[in-house]
Design a protein that fits this description.
The chain is of the alpha+beta class. The chain has helices at 8-18, 80-94, 114-118, 145-153, 161-167, 189-198; strands at 2-5, 28-34, 40-47, 65-73, 100-106, 122-127, 131-138, 141-143, 173-177, 180-186. The strands form two sheets. Strands 1-2-3-4-5-10-6 form a seven-stranded mixed sheet, with helices on both faces. A three-stranded antiparallel sheet has the order 8-7-9. It is globular and about 55 Å long.
């Protein structure tokens, strides 16, 4: 298995075709994954994440922490955990200032984070449980808040439940998330010690 820096074209295609979110995150970089037959399998992506203050709890600045934001793969890879392991080694080489990687398993999608456990990440708890995440249930389907914002903005309307119900679906509701399981992967000795102090048992994860 070989990983190479991914082009934007590869990133866009993989995110739209291979990942359940069907969206392309901004400010990302990553690696294209090729199997032993030299077939392209998709991408592993990292970025600054949606929260620019995500390093604050760990006293890290931007550039010292990144988020694993997508593993958009088509299934042709021999091992997903191997692809991630190689990507983590490349991050350490390509971003020498980076000390910590954070990622989340989406409970709403039934994800527990098995891939993180297989590659020795530290489980540190669940965030955003029973919280509104800005998305809505419209006509029986979950729609991301940004998508609705773009739609309503065309008509000069604000993104709120009242407008969504008035113009899109009278029975629309705000979506309440089941939460995201948070994992940390340290790249330095100091961060490893910190992660060990925060770490919780995988057996404690309930979805």
């Amino acid at each position: 298995m070989i990983l190479k820096r991914a082009t934007y074209k590869a990133i866009k295609y993989a995110c739209l075709k291979f990942h359940y979110a069907k969206s392309v995150p901004v400010n990302v970089f990553g690696y294209s994954v090729f199997n032993e037959e030299k077939e392209w399998c998709g991408v592993v992506l990292f970025g600054t994440g949606a929260n620019h203050n995500m390093g604050n709890p760990y006293k890290l600045k931007q550039g010292q922490i990144v988020e694993l934001v997508r593993m958009a793969l088509n299934g042709k890879q021999e091992s997903t955990s191997k692809a991630l392991s190689i990507a983590l080694k490349l991050i350490k080489k390509d971003l020498p200032l980076c000390q910590l990687i954070v990622s989340y398993a989406d409970v709403d999608q039934g994800h527990k984070g098995i891939i993180y456990q297989a590659t020795n990440w530290y489980y540190v708890g669940t965030s955003l449980k029973d919280k509104k995440d800005g998305s809505f249930i419209v006509n029986g389907k979950r729609v991301h808040g940004k998508t609705l914002f773009d739609t309503l903005k065309k008509y000069g309307l604000k993104r709120n439940l009242e407008n969504v119900q008035k113009y899109l679906d009278k029975n629309a509701t705000e979506y309440v998330t089941k939460g995201k399981i948070k994992y940390l992967y340290p790249l330095t000795k100091d961060m490893r010690l910190m992660c060990e102090s925060l770490s919780m048992d995988y057996k404690d994860i309930i979805i």
